[in-house]
Design a protein that fits this description.
Length: 747
């Protein structure tokens, strides 16, 4: 890679003009966001307008009852959606699914088909556009070409994608004015095993719904028929110039910089967070928001994040499976739109050393079919027994199966971020805030709740749930029952829990599956305890409910932590409490197969033993492969770029020293620098050679040994190479350095 390429990329970055997209207009005014929203979604309203009324009613009953669609209904829906989609420019359809790669997959098929008929004894072939109910319901990708963890052999290729009718179909715009109809789907093997992320998410949603409804029945609620898990994923990401990105092989291959010195100024002054969004970035995000609005993704918030060139967008909460669909669509749209703006979006959890990485904070709650949020504590949580029973069930789940949640967010990329003073640590704990902690403590200790109306903030008096700022022009300010704790991996934030440890690059599906499973089991246990306390009475008494809350609050108390999760003191305290501190990914993956976790998932019917074992192997294999790809990429950077730059600069220094010596000048500064460069080059070359040998060693090991050895040895060796390369970067003249530097990428 030449220095001229780097300079050309920098010049292109400076001189490039913004891409401008006009917001659509109607009647000489800008369309309102609500008018744009869902334009390309085949939602219930659209279905009602395009299907015969009896067919639409049959479809609604079948979906609401979670029964298999009959063929006549499927044929009618397929015909209606084809006409609707083709009128909007669609030429193809695709079953859009979520294999265990962290991304989505799609295979496009045309609506075009050929028919034949006999005319005057001759067969005539003619073209028509068609889409049958069978084509809508099912397609057949190659099941052996996706991660399967041994469920499928290479020669066992058959797999099926099946339409998920709960998630609406939508249209994605393509080149040349064409479009594709996207059909959200599940992906299963020939024998019915789940090969994807969505199948198990839908299973877990049904399990937790049933468990929650069971608790509500025990509390006298006979109206609620279904409870959904709601989810909102705050998506963090970096945006960098694409020309510079193209000159960084590590970013292109590994998704993160494997070498590079942080600039003198990055995020120390805390001046980027919530600052003014750069115009080029705003143009990109605004265009992405427009496309997302058309396909029904309810993006609500956008802002600068903590690190330079880091940003976040966040949606309105939706039912979990749809929220996952929409999060993955958001990542895809951001990627494609950024490309048009000559930008590159980075979803890696830690693309740059020394500055904050990115997460995907998953905001999770439970909602009844009447829209009632079961995690709303109301203004008097101490007497909201339904809320408290759900709360202690969640805490019980955290305490008993926190290791499952740790496993759900483990990856080679997220490992760089967890616990690094920017993300929750590997110890799973729950934060409730002072008020709710006091409520549970008072119930456990059988005493009145403390008086929260007493002033305890300097300059601010607290009365109930409002703040008085002592400024006459300001109205009373509503105050939440809890503060926010950004160091907690699982924090209660007012009417939901925020699972903060989820990685920005990963699908949120698997973490939510395991969370749903753990909570569902604990809800069952709480329900059993309520019924036992009730005995033969017609309904449980207040004391019955308090006794159950008291029992579960006490047994799960060790998982509650209100302090700084980044502190060394918490590590010591967590060990005393018996909370696992699972630092490595291979150790986290093994937790999936422990008896208590295996029993949980299989007994609830969310994962079979074979499906669970396959996921363990997929995760472990991907972890080792990710690290090996990074290591090979790093070695290539050093051998093909850094060392040649060092050698070229050494030669120039040597030539300069010889020239000065001929002129009778003692080149002391040059000699000193040459000596430093020589020592640094030798050290880097030796480290690179050791890295190459270690790569060969790990590649020869079996799957399990690969993951463990890569985690223990390869990461250390790569860091050693990086330190020596970064030391050389500080010494080599800028004009010789082959790769765009952090200053250019981030600032």
């Amino acid at each position: 890679m030449s220095q001229s390429a780097r300079l050309s990329a920098l010049q292109e970055n400076v001189e490039r003009s913004n891409r401008n997209i006009d917001w659509p207009q109607v009647n000489d005014r800008h369309m309102y966001p609500s008018e744009v929203f869902g334009q390309d979604v085949f939602d219930r309203k659209t279905m009602a307008g395009t299907l015969p009324k009896p067919v639409f009613q049959a479809f609604s009953k079948q979906v609401q009852g979670h029964r298999q669609l009959d063929r006549p209904t499927a044929d009618a829906v397929a015909h209606a959606v084809r006409i609707w989609a083709m009128n909007k420019g669609a030429t193809h359809f695709t079953h859009w699914f979520q294999p265990q790669t962290g991304t989505t997959a799609e295979k496009h098929d045309s609506f075009l088909t050929l028919k034949s008929q006999i005319i005057d004894g001759q067969e005539e072939i003619y073209a028509i556009d068609a889409f049958s109910g069978g084509q809508l319901l099912q397609s057949e990708p190659d099941a052996s070409s996706f991660p399967n963890g041994g469920i499928r052999s290479t020669f066992e290729a058959r797999g099926y994608t099946i339409w998920d009718p709960v998630s609406p179909m939508f249209i994605r715009r393509g080149p040349h004015g064409t479009a594709v109809l996207y059909i959200p789907s599940v992906f299963i093997s020939y024998n019915g095993e789940a090969l994807d992320e969505k199948t198990i998410l839908l299973r877990s949603s049904e399990v937790i719904s049933k468990a929650t409804v069971g608790l509500l029945r025990a509390l006298g609620d006979n109206e609620t028929q279904r409870v959904t898990t709601t989810l909102g994923c705050e998506q963090e990401f970096f945006l960098i110039d694409r020309a510079l990105y193209n000159l960084r092989p590590d970013l292109k291959i590994a998704g993160r910089t494997l070498i590079g010195v942080p600039p003198p100024k990055h995020q120390q002054l805390e001046d980027h967070y919530f600052g003014q969004i750069p115009s080029r970035v705003l143009a990109c995000i605004a265009e992405a928001e427009y496309e997302l609005a058309r396909i029904g993704v309810p993006v609500k918030t956008r802002h600068n994040e903590v690190a330079p060139n880091q940003f976040e967008i966040a949606p309105i909460f939706e039912e979990a499976s749809i929220a996952v669909d929409h999060n993955l669509a958001t990542m895809e749209v951001l990627h494609q739109v950024a490309h048009r703006h000559k930008l590159k979006v980075l979803f890696h959890e830690k693309p740059f050393k020394g500055v904050n990485g990115s997460g995907k904070h998953a905001n999770w709650a439970l909602q009844t079919d009447s829209g009632d949020n079961l995690l709303d504590p109301t203004s008097t949580p101490e007497t909201n027994y339904r809320f408290l029973l759900v709360l202690v069930a969640i805490l019980d789940a955290m305490y008993k199966h926190g290791d499952l949640l740790r496993a759900s967010i483990a990856s080679a990329s997220n490992e760089h971020r967890l616990g690094a003073n920017e993300a929750p640590p590997a110890i799973v704990s729950a934060f409730l805030g002072d008020h709710l902690s006091e409520v549970l403590n008072s119930i456990e200790e059988k005493r009145p709740v403390a008086d929260f109306s007493q002033p305890h903030l300097q300059g601010v008096s607290v009365g109930g749930t409002t703040l008085d700022l002592k400024i006459s022009s300001m109205p009373p300010i509503a105050r939440d029952l809890t503060d926010r704790n950004r160091t907690s991996p699982f924090a209660f934030t007012g009417n939901k829990f925020e699972f903060r440890a989820v990685g920005s690059k990963q699908s949120p599906s698997f973490p939510i599956v395991l969370l749903n499973a753990a909570v569902a089991k604990s809800l069952q246990l709480v329900t059993e305890a309520v019924k036992k306390a009730q005995g033969k009475k017609a309904a449980p008494s207040t004391e019955d409910l308090l006794s159950v809350i008291r029992t579960f609050a006490a047994s799960s108390k060790k998982v509650r932590f209100e302090g700084n999760g980044y502190s060394d003191e918490w590590v010591v305290e967590a060990e005393k409490r018996g909370l696992p501190n699972i630092k490595s990914c291979p150790a986290a993956f093994k937790r999936l197969l422990l008896d208590h976790n295996k029993q949980l998932l299989t007994s609830l019917g969310i994962l079979s033993a074979a499906e669970l074992t396959s996921r363990y192997h997929i995760l472990l294999e991907k972890y080792a492969k990710d690290l090996l790809i990074e290591a090979n990429t790093l070695r290539s950077l050093i051998v093909n770029g850094v060392l040649p730059a060092a050698f070229t600069y050494r030669k120039e220094l040597a030539d300069s020293i010889n020239s000065q010596k001929s002129a009778g000048v003692d080149a002391i500064p040059e000699k000193k620098l040459l000596n430093t460069l020589t020592k640094g080059s030798i050290a880097l070359q030796e480290s690179s050679t050791s890295l190459e040998a270690l790569i060969s060693k790990i590649e020869s090991l079996d799957e399990e040994s690969q993951g463990e050895t890569a985690g223990k040895e390869l990461t250390v060796a790569m860091e050693d190479v990086r330190e020596k390369s970064d030391a050389l970067e500080k010494q080599i003249a800028d004009k010789y350095w082959p790769y765009p530097k952090y200053t250019e990428l981030l600032l």
